[in-house]
Amino acid sequence: MTSAADDTGLPRVKLDYLPALLVPGLMIVAAPLIGSGSTWATLTVAGLAMGMMIFIIASGLTLVFGLMDVLNFGHGAFISIGAYLALIVVVPLAPWFAADSLPLNLAGLLLAILVAMAGSGALGYAFERVLIMPVYGQHLKQILITMGGLIVAEQMIHVVWGAQQVAMPLPTAFRGAITFGDIAVEKYRLIAVCIGLVVFGAMFLVLNRTKIGLLIRAGVENGEMVEALGYRIRRLFVGVFVAGSALAGLGGVMWAFYRETLTANIGGEVMIMVFIVIIIGGLGSVGGCFLGALLVALTANYTAFLAPKVALGSNILLMVLVLMWRPMGLYPVAKR
Amino acid sequence: MADPILRLEGVHTHIGQYHILQGVDFEVPRGELTVLLGRNGAGKTTTLRTIMGLWKPSRGRVVFDGQDIGGRDTPDIAQGGIAYVPEAMGIFADLTVRENMILAARDGAPDQARLDWIFSFFPALKKFWSLAAGHLSGGQKQMLSIARAVVEPRRLILIDEPTKGIAPAIIENMIRAFQDLKRSDTTILLVEQNFRFASMLGDGVVVMDDGRIVHRDRMAALAGDPAAQTRLLGLSLDAHQ
Ligand SMILES: Nc1ncnc2c1ncn2[C@@H]1O[C@H](COP(=O)(O)OP(=O)(O)OP(=O)(O)O)[C@@H](O)[C@H]1O
Ligand SMILES: [Mg+2]
Questions:
Q1: How far apart are CA B132 and CA A10, in angstroms?
Q2: Which residues of chain B are within 8 Å of residue A219 when distances are taken between CB atoms?
Q3: With an 8 Å Cβ cutoff, is B148 touching chain A?
Q4: Which of A172, A207, A284, B75 has the most CB atoms within 10 Å of its CB?
């Protein structure tokens, strides 16, 4: 197989950029179908904002699967709990949110996010220790027990916060839109895009520039070898699980503000898209998850406008098309 | 021979319902290179995986430096000073050569003098230092897998068939690297089918069949006894030259 030439010839490295071209490709294809430029811009920004939120929620889940083959169907619980925990801040600090002051609005929002992330992260830790640890390596039990955990979490929300819909008003400064010519872009969507990019950038740096990040990427490929080098993959996994839960909490808060209302099944709503995203992206791939989230959200927004009747099926169709092209997802992770 | 660094005593290993190792007994003397030979499916890889804790022995003892490590978790065993070069090499394809080496060096960044020593045998690793390891050729991946195991001094190195599918030129470099390691008193347990390679490096030899050790000898004695080679391995040194 190998020849002496291996020592001299540089292997040709093909950068796999095709999946990354899908996102702008989809935007370009949608433009003539939609017709109006301002409508297209509005839908695109909405799709990007939604995609960022889905990415934030999905990124942890894809790593949790990649690292230890754990199927967590209860991930939606962290979204819902995160969003409701934000109420701990939003309700008593309502004057801050209503005030016509950017610093107060911002402080309130950041505080809500911190509480949500800390709470959902802590819940994630308990969830991992109590529900998931006993069923490492057993897929069927993982599915059943994590779905059970999700149901319990939703019922707990009903007990604590009641079953009725709760209002989640946006802080004053983030209401309304900024107009560029005849294009109106809602401010909150821009903020969601910014937060999403910050999370993606931070995750990219951690995964590529820190030893922990290297271990996570190595572990997704070959956990056994990571252990044979002397590292505890389970400890790494717990860390990733907690971080992923906290991010799901962040996504939950952002989603709740996006809809400006809150119900206990908010997590379940998003999770269908989240599962589609991590399958499209390639299980265990953060980059694939990012692209998948943008594709799914843009598709959802475009079809909701173009053909509302098929909007629900459009993401399934997208998934089928992607998997026909790349059966293991956009960026398959080399396994073992 | 008085003080082996590793001793397996009546080790049995089950994989699922299969009884693969059926009472494995042998010793790896300190500072020596011991070759583990045996036909395909004899249980050589299973033996290394059992030592490494990747399979748990169902019976018997794996004594490393006086302590029974049978049943311990793999990371503990690795931290105790055992390095492993698996049959499938276990390269992290998505990580660069450099990143693979960083993870292998547990005590901080890889030592530059040690790296230069490694590069002297495997220059390709220096050349492709910043390349994703998945792009390396099979032989280069094998070099990387060995380099990871020796990036820091370890007390015992387990190597599973490093010459499988590797070009002769690279095998020569491997021989020089292992000879150099031996001079620095590194203890190695090497699984090998290439008898010429094995006989050039081995101090002692154990032969396995059907999950048991069927022969223990000094390598020099076995290499000089074609009849025993034919009987034990179904091959002779002459037939391979
Ligand atoms: N994961 C597994 N599940 C079931 N049986 C296995 C497994 N791994 C190995 N075996 C069986 O155990 C026996 C020993 O396998 P092992 O890989 O240890 O042999 P080996 O001596 O390393 O062979 P080779 O020279 O082909 O690498 C074989 O019969 C093999 O089929
Ligand atoms: Mg083998």
A1: 12
A2: none
A3: yes
A4: A284
Q: Residue A306 carries which side chain, given as an amino acid letter?
A: L
Query: What residues contact A35, with CB distance under 8 A and at least 6 apart?
Result: none
* Ligand 1 neighbourhood includes B134 CB (under 6 angstroms): no
Going residue by residue through chain A, which has 336 residues, state the pLDDT in tens, using 9 for 90 and above.
334 444 445 555 667 888 999 999 999 999 999 988 889 999 999 999 999 999 999 999 999 998 888 999 999 999 999 999 999 999 999 999 999 999 999 999 999 999 999 999 999 999 999 999 999 989 999 999 999 999 999 999 999 999 899 999 899 999 999 988 888 899 999 999 999 999 999 999 999 999 999 999 999 999 999 999 999 999 999 999 999 999 999 999 999 999 999 998 888 888 999 999 999 999 999 999 999 999 999 999 999 999 988 877 899 999 999 999 999 999 988 764
Q: What pTM does this model have?
A: 0.91
Assess whether B143 and B165 both reside in one domain. no
* Coil/strand/helix, residue B211: coil
Residue B207: partners with Cβ closer than 8 Å, 6 or more residues away: B36, B37, B38, B213, B214, B215, B216, B217, B232, B233
| B145 and B160 part of one domain | no
Q: Kindly state whether B136 is in contact with chain A, defined as any CB-CB distance less than 8 angstroms.
A: yes
Please tell me the distance in Å from A179's CA to the nearest CA on chain B: 43
Q: Is B57 in the pocket of ligand 1 (CB under 6 A)?
A: no
Number of domains in chain B: 2
B166: domain CATH number? 3.40.50.300
